[in-house]
Write a structure and sequence with these properties.
Aldehyde Dehydrogenase, Chain A, domain 2; 22% strand; alpha/beta; 2 domains; six-stranded mixed beta sheet; binds nicotinamide-adenine-dinucleotide; Aldehyde Dehydrogenase, Chain A, domain 1
Length: 482
């Protein structure tokens, strides 16, 4: 796995517009910090309305020729991008460790997923197919063909900047669209490095552009720009809801991948050891800052005590050492704002009578893996997404109660159940209100060609190879009178 022990040194990051580093028009930069100690790592261009307009206009101009590129050109670029990511994997791992506090195994996982998305996108280029359609008019040949739609705004979150940076760009590119990316303010270095990788892979200038800065200040300009045809957004429900309204008003296509409060059910007949391992993986990866994290665990009462004992023991022994040590699972929480949220959720629960079975304390910017029981609906942690290493475990009488409890949430991203009973498993699969559900496996799972996404407040639309072909191309109906 890599790499240097200390943080690398990073040069300041400009926007990436028209195939090159481009200083911000207003000349302003903002500091980007290492979440481990909040020390400044570098500085990044603070985007303005003018920068966004310039990037969109550049992408719009590039679309005029890129839309006519043939599949083998885009396939070659995406294959080359995968080859370069493989070649430079240690550098990408280093950035993920330094810039967003990824433990090295999570950083390596992001690289693997990035490779998978790029390779799958290369395959997509040859699957943009149309239809022949029977016509009622004698001698009329009728068909429908797909075309790319134009400029797509890709807005990414802090927690998986490589996975989402790649995913929200390679599929649009595979289909002949062009992209303006607004990355999280916490991850401008990674996004700029991704732009350089695409350029080295031979992507024509202007096809992929990055404007860094405050989404709060420049996001609306991007979302509502007349030349932006679609917004593909991953982030919080709060911002997602705002983008949903703007896209509705301005007639934009959109996919929204938002927050979650995923349930994981453990029935008494399950293999407890595997259920504990699955639960640990589901909530504590990247210190709980994962959208699919199973922050609600429902355990059948017969095995509740032994599950909680085994789970708390496993949680408290997770590594909190050097981020570059493969045994480290728990790194820092990304920012003071997020730390405050995690602290508030734990203290509110403790104050209202929850039992902190393990954890609840902080080591620097890291929160110990925290297991709560006796959580009630009055507590903030009951319903809200914490986005930290905090999990509530509840006893349930059986499957009926498990399904009702799992569905008692505004979210519906992912879900998991551990059981040996196929009928119970299938009933849960059919009745749980969730975009994704896994039997005898972690709630965290993703592959390029699956319909990825959530229901209820967790999202709108799905990502995936087939899904993105549908969402990011438009139909044209054509007839030829013989
Ligand atoms: P966030 O919503 O704070 O920010 C996400 C992005 O939105 C950032 O790039 C930010 O600059 C931008 N933004 C902010 N205001 C904007 C506006 N008005 N217009 C346009 N863009 C704007 O989210 P975050 O804290 O970076 O990420 C954590 C959240 O993302 C969690 O809720 C998590 O569950 C969710 N998430 C979901 C998925 C998924 O696939 N469902 C994956 C990862 C993260």
């Amino acid at each position: 796995m890599s790499t240097s022990l200390a943080a690398r040194s990073y040069e300041s990051v400009d926007h990436w517009i028209d195939g090159k580093n481009t200083p911000p028009q207003g000349g302003k930069y903002f500091p980007t910090r290492n979440p481990l100690d909040d020390k400044v790592l570098s500085e990044a261009a603070a985007g303005s309305v003018e920068d966004v307009n310039r990037a969109v206009e550049t992408a719009h101009e590039a679309f005029a020729s890129f839309r006519a590129s043939v599949p083998k050109e885009r396939e070659r670029i995406l294959c080359k991008a995968a080859e370069l990511l493989e070649r430079d994997r240690n550098e990408f791992v280093d950035i993920l460790v330094d810039e967003i506090g990824s433990p090295i195994r999570k950083a390596a996982f992001e690289v693997e997923k990035g490779l998978a998305f790029l390779r799958a996108a290369a395959g997509m280029t040859r699957h943009v197919t149309g239809k022949t359609i029977p016509s009622d008019v004698p001698g009329k040949f009728s068909m429908s063909i797909r075309s790319p739609i134009g400029v797509i705004a890709a807005i990414t979150p802090f927690n998986v900047p490589l996975i989402k940076g790649v995913r929200l760009s390679c599929n649009p590119i595979a289909l002949g669209n062009t992209v303006v990316m607004l990355p999280s303010e916490e991850a401008p270095i990674l996004s700029n490095r991704l732009a350089q990788l695409y350029a080295e892979a031979g992507l024509p200038e202007g096809v992929f552009n990055v404007v860094s800065g405050s989404g709060y200040e420049i996001g609306d300009t991007l979302t509502t720009h007349p030349q932006v045809r679609m917004v593909t957004f991953t982030g919080s429900c709060r911002v997602g809801q705002h983008i949903r309204e703007l896209c509705g008003k301005h007639g934009k296509r959109m996919t929204l991948e938002l927050g979650g409060k995923s349930p994981l059910v453990v029935l008494a007949d399950s293999c407890l050891q595997k259920a504990v391992a699955g639960a640990v993986q589901s909530i504590f990866m990247y210190q709980g800052q994962v959208c699919m994290g199973a922050s609600r665990i429902y355990v059948q009462e017969e095995v509740f005590a032994s599950f909680v004992k085994g789970f708390a023991k496993a949680a408290s022994s997770l590594g909190m050492g050097d981020l570059r040590d493969p045994n480290t699972m728990i790194g820092p929480i990304i920012s003071e704002r997020q730390r405050e949220r995690v602290r508030r959720h734990i203290e509110d629960a403790r104050g209202k009578g929850a039992t902190v079975v393990t954890g609840g304390k902080w080591v620097g910017n890291r929160c110990e893996p925290t297991v709560l029981t006796d959580v009630t609906p009055e507590m903030t942690v009951y319903a809200e997404e914490t986005f930290g290493p905090v999990v509530s475990v509840y006893p349930i009488t059986g499957l009926d109660e498990a399904i009702a409890a799992a569905n008692d949430s505004a979210f519906g991203l992912s879900a998991a159940i551990f059981t040996q009973n196929i009928s119970d498993a299938m009933r849960f699969v059919m009745e749980v209100e969730s975009g994704m559900v896994h039997v005898n496996g972690s709630s965290l799972h993703d592959e390029p060609h699956v319909p990825f996404g959530g229901t209820k407040e967790s999202g709108f639309g799905r990502e995936g190879t087939e899904e993105d072909i549908e969402a990011m191309t438009e139909w044209k109906w054509v007839t030829i009178q013989m």
